[in-house]
Each structure stands twice: as structure tokens, then as C-alpha cells.
């Protein structure tokens, strides 16, 4: 919105005495300026809206009045405070601020931005429905996993097919890029490329969702990964930088930098209220949307597998659940008694059960996330 308004005023002032006074509006043409504006706007809005939304959620009794899965399992001696009674659905704050700030500072005629915003809204709506179901049932069960997966796969398939069928973006699907390689490892990979896109979006959405279990854990890791993609989107959208680093240049990808900046601002603002002891949880309303956003951004900058590195903590959390569930079912079927690999899954609860304090787990996972981020950024040069 600000971009179009600034250009309108600049065009109007040409040849008039106002031209000199309004020349500073040319700054809005720069992605870096608008990204900074989006981040600051999102942060300030989060600080202003946060207490109001938390109070609103409490009034509506949208709190977690059921014990979370970790507490139900027991044995978490290091957990001093119960999560019971804390308002959930705080993802409303993240998504609202993220959406508004992006619309305010980006170029809305950019289809990459529109696809990203669409995915965020759809997945946020799905998460909201799931959170609401948990509150109504008061069991923590929520929407059946199959229903969520069907909705996620439907959205991801729509995006994948749209990108494939659109001439300007078809290479994002048909050519498969991997980190540390200058050239595509596969070309003309229609069906395989579609599968990669779908799995990137669905997998990322669920991985962030599984990570959301401790105060500040998911949103803190989200901030770190968002910074990685802030760099990647800017480079991918700059033809000179992309050429120098020998990564795929994607026209229009630079505008996703504004979205990533807004995500960082919104995330910092939410972390203010979500750090231990949390005043509000993001719930599936936020985690599904943020995870899905990472997946689609990775696809849109032609770097889907970089997400596996940058989001290494999310991957570890998801893999821990897959291994735990798979091994338990396998041993129960063949040995009669289900066995576990971890004390509890997702992985952060395993360390809680080992006696780590919640803040210890969160900070150490932050450190791991930073290390993964550094490796991901290194792939820009190591090719």
C-alpha cells in the first residue's frame, strides 16, 4: 500500500515545485527499506495488540483448560508451572499482524506474495478450527489428523499444480535444486517436482506444529529460520546477487523479503508474551500457518531442500515423532509390547523427562537452530 501511494505521489509531483520535497519517497522503491518498515510495524502492532488479544481470549474462555500431553504423561519433574488455563489461539495475533504489515509494505500485484498470504490464511483457518475443537472437547484431541492432512495436501497440491501450469514459474517445479549444487539435479521432473513441493509445504507445516510444546520454543526457532529466508529471498530476487552466488534467480522473489521481515517483527512481538512463563500460546492457529509459510517460501525461491537444513530443529522434532510412533507400532505387532526410542516425543519432551528445565531445553534448541541456520546460509557460497 505504501509503495503504490509513494509512486502515485512521485508521479503526480513530476514537473512541479513539490518534486524536490517528495523526492524522499523514492526510498519506498527499495526492498530493504520496506522490509525494515514491515518488521518495525509488525513488532509495534504486536506489542499494542498483544494485551488486548490475550484479554479477549480470556473473556471468550479460549484457554487451555485441559492438561497438555506432556503433563498427562507425567514424569516431568523439571516443569514447575502447569500450562493449564493459559489462553491459546494466540496465532491470531501473529497472523493478523503478519498479514497487515505485509499488505502495508509489499507490492500486492506480486503473485508469489499472494500465494504465500493465501497459504497462511488457509492454514491459519485450519489451525483455528483445530484449536476451537480442542477447547470445546476439553480433551486436547481436536480435529482428526486425517482431516488436517487432507486440507494441507489439498492446499499444497493446488499451489504445486498452479506453479507447474504457469509458464513463468513452471521451473520451480520441473527443475529440482539441492543445496551445494549450482545446477538442477533433475530437469523435466514433473511428477517428482510436484511431490517435492507438496511434501515441503505439508511437512514444514506439521513440523513447526510438533515443535510448539514449550514456552517460546516454536516462535523462537521460527524467528531464526525466518532470518535465513530473509537473506535467501533477497538474494533470489536480485539478479546480480543471484548470478554472483550462482543460485536460481526468481523474478519477484525479492518481495518475499518484506513478508519474511514482517514475520520476524510479528514473531518478536509474540515472543514478548510467549516467553516463559507464557501468557498465551500460538496454538495450531499460528504453528500450522508459520510452518506452511516456510514451505511455500522455500519452494518459491527454488530452494525447497534448504528448508531441511535451516529448519533442522523442526526436522528433528518431526523425525522423533515418526520414529517413536513407527517403532512402538512395530514392536507391539511383532513382540507384543510396544517399545520406545525416546522417553517421550516430540524430542523436546524427551529432554524434559531427563530432568532438564523447560528454559534449558528452549535455549539449547535455540543454539541448535542457530547452528543449522549458519549451515543453511553457508550453502549460498559453497556450491
Tell me the β content: under 5%
Q: How helical, in percent, are the residues?
A: 55-70%
Radius of gyration: 22 Å
Largest sheet: none
Q: Which regions are unreliable across 5 or more consecutive residues at pLDDT < 50?
A: 70-74
By secondary-structure content and strand pairing, the structural class works out as: mainly alpha
Order of helices and strands: HHHHHHHHHHHHHHHH
Give the overall form. globular
Helix count equals 16
Mean pLDDT, rounded to whole units? 90
Distance between the termini: 38 Å
Tally the beta strands: 0
Q: Kindly give the count of domains.
A: 1
Question: Topology, pairings included?
Answer:
Layout: H1 2-13, H2 31-59, H3 69-73, H4 91-105, H5 111-137, H6 145-165, H7 171-174, H8 190-211, H9 217-236, H10 239-245, H11 255-274, H12 283-300, H13 306-310, H14 312-335, H15 347-353, H16 358-378
Helix pairs in contact: 2-4, 2-11, 4-5, 4-11, 4-12, 5-6, 5-12, 6-8, 8-12, 8-14, 9-11, 9-12, 9-16
Question: How does this model look, in words?
Answer:
With 383 residues, this protein is an all-alpha fold. It has one domain. Helix content is 67%, strand content 0%. The protein has 16 helices and no strands. The protein has helices at residues 2-13, 31-59, 69-73, 91-105, 111-137, 145-165, 171-174, 190-211, 217-236, 239-245, 255-274, 283-300, 306-310, 312-335, 347-353, 358-378. Mean pLDDT is 90; it is low at 70-74.
Quick structural gist:
It contains 16 helices and no strands. By secondary structure, the chain is mostly helical.
